[in-house]
Known about the structure:
Layout: H1 13-16, E1 45-46, E2 56-57, E3 62-63, H2 69-79, H3 81-84, E4 91-98, E5 104-112, E6 115-127, E7 134-140, H4 156-165, H5 170-173, E8 177-186, E9 192-200, H6 204-207, E10 211-217, E11 223-229, H7 239-251, E12 255-262, E13 268-275, E14 281-282, E15 284-285, E16 292-296, E17 317-318, H8 326-329, H9 332-349, E18 362-370, E19 373-374, E20 378-380, E21 385-388, H10 401-414, H11 423-444, E22 456-457, H12 467-470, E23 473-474, H13 481-484, H14 493-496, H15 501-514, H16 517-530, H17 538-552, H18 556-568, E24 584-587, E25 598-600, E26 603-610, E27 614-623, E28 631-632, E29 640-646, E30 650-658, E31 664-672, E32 679-684, E33 687-695, E34 698-705, E35 711-717, E36 723-724, E37 732-739, E38 742-751, E39 754-763, E40 768-772, E41 779-787, E42 790-797, E43 805-809, E44 817-820, E45 830-835, E46 839-845, E47 859-865, E48 872-873, E49 881-886, E50 892-896, E51 903-907
Parallel strand pairs: 16-18, 18-21
Antiparallel strand pairs: 1-2, 2-7, 3-7, 4-5, 5-6, 6-7, 8-9, 9-10, 10-11, 12-13, 13-14, 14-17, 15-16, 18-19, 20-21, 22-23, 24-51, 25-26, 26-27, 27-28, 29-30, 30-31, 31-32, 33-34, 34-35, 35-36, 37-38, 38-39, 39-40, 41-42, 42-43, 43-44, 45-46, 46-47, 47-48, 49-50, 50-51
Helix pairs in contact: 9-10, 10-11, 11-15, 15-16, 15-18, 16-17, 17-18
Amino acid sequence: MHQRSRSPKLLGAAIxxxxxxxxxxxxxxxxGAAPAADPDPVPGLVAGTDxxxxxxxxxxxxxxxxGTPADAARAHLAAYxxxxxxxxxxxxxxxxxxxxxxxxxxxxxQQHGGVPVFxxxxxxxxxxxxxxxxxESVGGKYFTGLTAPTVxxxxxxxLRRLALxxxxxxxxxxxxxxxxxxPVVLPGGAGRLAxxxxxxxxxxAVWAATAREVFVDATTGRLALAYDVRAPYRAAAAAxxxxxxxxxxxTAAVEPATGTAPDALGRSVPVNVGxxxxxxxxxxxxxxxxxxxxxxxxxxxxxxxxxGLPADARPAxxxxxxxxxxxxxSGATDAHLNAAAVxxxxxxxxxxAGIDGDNGPITSVVNVTSFGEPLQNAYWDxxxxxxxGGTGTYHPFSAARDVAGHEMTHGVVKHTAQLVYLxxxxxxxxxxxxxxxxxxxxxxxxxxxxxxxxxxxxEDLCRAGTPEACAVRRxxxxxxxxxxxxxxxxxxxxxxVHLNSTIFSxxxxxxxxxxxxxxxDRLVYRALAEYLTPLDDFVDARGxxxxxxxxxxxxxxxxRTVAGAFDAHGIKAGWQRRIGVxxxxxxxxxxxxxxxPDAAAGRWVAATTEKGGRGSLGxxxxxxxxxxxxxxxxxxxxxxxxWPATDGTTAAWAAMGQxxxxxxxMEVFARPLDxxxxxxxHSAANQxxxxxxxxxxxxxxxxxxFGTGRTWPQLSRDGAPVTAVPLPDGxxxxxLTLKDGLLAWTESWQVGxxxxxxxxxxxxxxxxxLAQYPAPDTTRVSGTRLAGxxxxxxxxxxxxxxxxxxxxxxxxxxxxxxxxxxxxxxxRRITALTATDRAVTFGYAGGRVSDTMKNTDLPKLWQLxxxxxxxxxxxCNRGGQYAPVADRGTRVLWLDATAGRTDLVVRERxxxxx
Length: 914
């Protein structure tokens, strides 16, 4: 239920390309036709975005020749190629879903030159049998215009190392593995060939409930897309065989029986169990097609159970049919009963054969720990349920039936729509899980929709307090897109999957209240199983639900009720344009939020692709006045150009990809902002070049050697060849800054078991270090910046109860002073720092990422005078604010996620109090 997130990653053109679909003209409303007095709530045609293929076509009744449903679907797409713009030869059938009324949905995925296209799925819906088959609707995501290469130009081992390097947290990188899934084309414009890896680690603090999907551009080596997933299969070689043996042993020679067991509240309840040959009993329910088995981890580490069952794992057991009190306190009884309730709901109410649709076993593991403490979480790991045990605050996480239903519904989503767990499609995944988790509880417990607590989710978890205070979410919170959508990048809550879920699940819940609940459940399930596709956004999902309603036979009044619920929550085409901001946009819809812009003297530089994700990443320049179109500075040579810097006259940046010599590597360039030749500063084949900085004729950057992991500054002065800035053995540099002949960085080194961090100032003219300011023990230094003749930096204690401080020191080593002291009453964790000779601007998040995050918990920017003072909010925009860069005076530019995309924006001065 509760999700943790790490630092921002690239949201990616693959997701940005599917935002904001517009409604097309239904076939019935041809040119010149008068509008209907009572328009059909179900659109006849929804146009696709960044593709000529329609997102949805409904209202069809066309004969479909062919024997099997898949043959008939292919024949239909081929016969109407001008309508769909789909090449049937590029489609791969992945299965056919048969509804209770006999209708079939054929699912296809798209390939480009034999390489799978990420998230591309096209669906054909048929009714009738044999020669009487007819097509009723078609839709999904098929991307036309793909011309990306299908052969990688970056060595496989380099791609694997780059995938592991995408984990910025060293603790998470330790012992991590990268499972290679092969090539994939990321859609958007011409598309991009990438290599797909699933990265997993061994640290339970980082990886307990997630793995990370990483896509590395196979032509440049640039990180193309990365996001957390809910399936952290353990990569240990013994996990799968051990799990298979344990699973087989769990049901071998077990006979169905009944017994009793105490639940989490101590109440004795009947349970279906299994009797073993030795006369003992275990929590195995053999009374249904999907065998239900519940294991008690007895406090073992959660990573022992991810991806498989340890060889010695056994179901929760009892000497007799009446199970002991520990079965309740561990959460095993509730997990067992809730698995049955979920299976009953999907099987009897919706006609689904278990979670996987094929009567696969339903397995639960309760009472796991993380670092010896109860894991305060519950999640579906891709194969089974994992539940944390109880604490003084919480009951075991299996005690809440809606939580169990929510998490197991993620398994149903995985076996149906396969919604990508990122951005709006990830919020849809959470919304559908919310809806069915809630529906399973209120249905199985007989709670009417009019009950004031019917909309609560997770209200049974707390040992004390009111259900309203305990609830993780409530589906009647009334949130809308325009008023409440919270823009977040991929690294924060996977782009807002929890933050924005109740916007959509609230609409679904309103539909359930307005219609008969059984009808609503069948409607939402049909949309999930037969209409939704992996990259769908809120507007796509609205169309999917309405199309499912038409297929179910809802009358026009009912369909209007469904459409009205979506309207009330602002889920309609173009909603992003109605979100207000107090900043001025300089560049809209950047294809990345992981590369910071830069600004000086009223000029800015930033990295993005062409509109719609077309082409390779390039460096663009513009004016803060926005009086002219941005100009591309970097050559369009197939490489990724980014990591830009400027002094207001000249720009410098780094490029990654295959150079003129045919080798993969990186190169640093410089070019005047107002035009002129592009100069190569330095190139390297086995190094990562980053943190590019420029000041007059000086260009500096950091080099990281892939082999040794060593990082050091390099410098080119007056166009001369690059020279390394000497560092003592074992020392490394980060956070490079360059200004007026001074170069500064954060230097770190080991002293025994202790890591020392020190802001460091270096004179370029003298070729020597002028000053270092070693930080106290257990303090991390970051954000080193030169401004106003001072060196500034952030000190963050490892003690979470103490906040970050901003400090300042003279380049000659004079005593450091606090610009913003740290605090225990407001323990802010500063994540970004920039400054001019007048003001310091910093960013920090107001709270931790969780299911209950609010807008105020996302990173926001604050500003105070260079000499210190009271911070003021830079902007009242409600989305995440990232990568601030100071221009001059109090002017600040940053990357803003408020509108559900990444925009480069500017403000001239702080907004003050919001």
